[in-house]
Amino acid sequence: MISIEEKLKEQHTKEDLCLLINVILDTTKVIDYKVNQGALSNILGATSEVNIQGETQKKLDVICNQLLKDSLKSCGLVRTIASEEEDFVVEGHSGAPYIVAFDPLDGSSNIDINGQIGTIFTIYQARNDVASNSEEQFSQAGHAQVCAGYVLYSASTMLAITTTGPTSFYTLDKNSQAYVLTTDSIELPTQTNEFSVNMANSACWSQGFNNYINDLVSSDNRRGRRFNMRWNGAMVADIHRVLSRGGIFCYPTHFDTPQPSAKLRLLYEANPMAFLIENAGGKAYTESTRILDLKPDYIHQRVAVIMGSASEVDFCLGYLD
Ligand code: P6P
User: Fold this and answer.
1) How far is the CA of 242 from the centre of ligand 1 (A)?
2) pLDDT the model gives residue 272
3) Which residues of the chain does CATH 3.30.540.10 include?
């Protein structure tokens, strides 16, 4: 079994990028330990703080955010940091080659019910045309990512990662504490029988998206096959299922407020997941645009997300034209 370090070297990944990826992964091992502690340590439950997303921060959100910030600020390889849990960008090491954005604990509403949660990360080359403490560092199209990945803390702790080559799965060997290659080059099935959406939001959707979902759940749908639904409440878990066996994951625009709204964040949710999905042969769109062609207007920008098995994404988009 080959480790992530060996595989990155085999893929001729730049030395400083290998070092940075390992800084992130070493920090996820500490997070994994803390998540596995659960109720045994006083780290469950919420804080009294509300983050810029308007969400009450869980104790573990704050702990994991601080762990990643500390690691990235001290490694000397990161110029600028963005986090779901930080209002503004955090300055790292001026002149450093990379910038990193992350969601330290995606799906944290699952923490207190022992559900699946994960860390999502994305790495870009730093820009030399803007200040190191500027949000403009992250105004780069998703296709400029040099690495994207997530760690899913579940029955086993698994890493999905791509550095512009194929998307691969690694499993954390808890004895050696090494991430070991368990699926080399993921190939998403183009068709699927499984969709992932929060049906409770159907009153908020466009007519076109409702028509798509109504076709999926109707007994005589246009594909002549039954569909099943899964919704985990954590994008990292739902995308892991899609990468593992195909599927389509949707979080469409909501029209229940004066201004249409989206939930998922482009920089540290949609873009890294789109990079992983596309490098596994899938498709990733908002409702009209390829996600990886988008440049974030600001670090917490939200977008609609429709991603997964290519032919199912096309079918869904056909209802939205
Ligand atoms: P809802 C978690 O808060 C998250 O950002 C994604 O990980 C997840 O897919 C989505 O929101 C869940 O949203 O509205 O179903 O709670």
Assistant:
1) 16
2) 98
3) 4-183
Please tell me the CATH superfamily of domain 4-183, with its number. Answer: Fructose-1,6-Bisphosphatase, subunit A, domain 1 (3.30.540.10)
Q: Which atom of ligand 1 is nearest to the CA of 231?
A: 15
Query: Residues 78-123: pLDDT tens digits?
Result: 999 999 999 999 999 999 999 999 999 999 889 989 999 999 999 9
**Ligand 1 atom at minimal distance to the Cα of residue 107:** 2
Closest CA to 183 of 171, 164, 169: 169
Nearest CA to ligand 1 atom 16: 233
Tens digits of residue pLDDT in 128-184: 999 999 999 999 999 999 999 999 999 999 999 999 799 999 999 999 999 999 999
* Ranges for all domains in the chain classified under CATH 3.40.190.80: 194-318
Q: Which protein residue's CA is at the shortest distance from atom 9 of ligand 1? A: 235
Q: Which atom of ligand 1 is nearest to the CA of 109?
A: 3
- The CB of 77 under 6 Å from ligand 1? The reply is no
Phi first, then psi: give them for residue 155, nearest 5 degrees.
-50, -45
Mean of the per-residue pLDDT values of the chain: 95
Can you give the pTM of this predicted structure?
Answer: 0.96
What is the predicted ipTM? 0.98
Give the Å distance between the CA of 235 and the centre of ligand 1: 6
For ligand 1, atom 5, the nearest C-alpha belongs to 264
Q: How far is the CA of 18 from the centre of ligand 1 (A)?
A: 31
- pLDDT confidence of residue 18: 98
Give the atom of ligand 1 at the shortest distance from the alpha carbon of 106. 7
Instruction: Classify domain 194-318 by CATH architecture.
Output: 3-Layer(aba) Sandwich (3.40)
